[in-house]
Amino acid sequence: MVTRQPDVDPAVAATADDIEAMRIRGAATIADAAAEALSTQAKRSDATAPDVFERQLRAAAKTLYETRPTAVSLPNALRYVLRGMDGESVSALRDATIARAEEFQRELARAQTTLGTVGANRLRDGDVVMTHCHSTDALACLEAALEDGKEVEAIVKETRPRKQGHITAQQLREWGVPVTLIVDNAARRYLDEADHVLVGADSIAADGSVINKIGTSGLAVNARERGVPVMVAAQTIKLHPDTMTGHTVEIEMRAESEVVSDEERRTITGDADDGLVVANPAFDVTPPRYVDAIVTERGQFPPESIVTLMRELFGEMTGEPWEP
Ligand SMILES: O=C(COP(=O)(O)O)[C@H](O)[C@H](O)COP(=O)(O)O
After folding, report:
1. Which of 79, 116, 127, 266 has its CA at 20 to 30 Å from residue 232's CA atom?
2. What residues flank ligand 1, with Cβ below 6 Å?
3. CA 136 to ligand 1: nearest atom
4. Is 9 a catalytic residue?
């Protein structure tokens, strides 16, 4: 459970629980939900003094921030909204915060649509795309290609342990895209039939490394060996400004229960129930040399040049998202 801050509205706490339990998941969706939650906190605040209002909003941001560590879209969203919290009275602060959250959500949606059109330009009629996990940014590229009248097919990795590939497969089938669903271990074999690997990102580091669902790096290495280009679809909200000052991106470790049931654990260890460690990292790091292009709403970039865009958009940022 997330540590609850005092004065945080129950609706914000519920959003934090949903993010932590992955009922709300995926970097862009988490960012959208976080902005919405801050707006809700602003709407429902019972503060009568501006400093109390601000304290409540910062407490809400901290509660949301502590849910999952890897997707930088979460702190980036919190920072963006809190920076718009401006005014001399509670009502001015409330209006400004709500307007800022709405602006963030609008820009997020717009960025994804624009990014989709950029990514679609890389896809040709008849292409076969291999996907990993479920990324709304990656799907935006496929949706835009379909809208351009291109026919595409997809090889969808199921993505253990939580099988987010099923969500991707479901969305693609709704759009009428032929889908071949494969287990993760079959990826190398099926790369021979793929024209692109298309994945999303939770964070992008200053050196162009891509942090995304566990298994992305292995897929990218295999794709390079097979000569299949790797395209990463990532709005600029996924750029991790702290990495410009040498910080690393924390990789979330999730519960062992996602990998083995209690019964399976007992079968492995017997009654002793010791000596078995189940490691379940949720994300991994793909070095820039295995990535062909990072597709953003500002155009496509070779990974090594992404730091220029990062500096332009974020400057040198320090401090926790909820700090003034
Ligand atoms: O790794 C994941 C989701 O991981 P999880 O299921 O653990 O949240 C997605 O590829 C990115 O978040 C990008 O998604 P989007 O493009 O929708 O932001």
Report:
1. 79
2. 25-29, 71, 133, 135-138, 164, 200-202, 212-213, 282
3. 17
4. no
Low-confidence residues in the chain, pLDDT < 70:
1-6, 316-318
**What tokens appear for 180 in the block?**
């071949």
Mean pLDDT, the chain, rounded, equals: 96
Global pTM? 0.96
Distance CA 98, CA 283 (A): 32
The domain over range 117-249+281-314 is classified in CATH as 3.40.50.10470 = yes
Residue 43 counted as an annotated binding residue = no
Structure tokens at 10: 């129950």
Q: How many CB atoms lie within 10 A of CB 53?
A: 25
Handedness of CA 110, 37, 238, 126 (dihedral sign): negative
Confirm or deny that 185 is annotated as ligand binding: no
> Ligand 1 center to residue 27 CA distance, Å?
5
Structure tokens at 31: 């960012």
CATH for 10-113? 1.20.120.420
ipTM of the complex in this document:
0.99
Q: Is 242 a catalytic residue?
A: no
Q: Which of 25, 132, 133 to mutate to test the pocket of ligand 1 (most atoms within 8 A of CB)?
A: 133
Radius of gyration of the chain (CA): 21
Domain chopping of the chain, boundaries:
10-113, 117-249+281-314
Q: For 83-133, how does the pLDDT look when each residue is reduced to its tens digit (9 = 90+)?
A: 999 999 999 999 999 999 999 999 999 999 999 999 999 999 999 999 999
What atom of ligand 1 comes closest to residue 282's alpha carbon?
Answer: 7
Q: Are 10-113 and 117-249+281-314 the same fold in CATH?
A: no
**Model pLDDT, residue 198:** 99
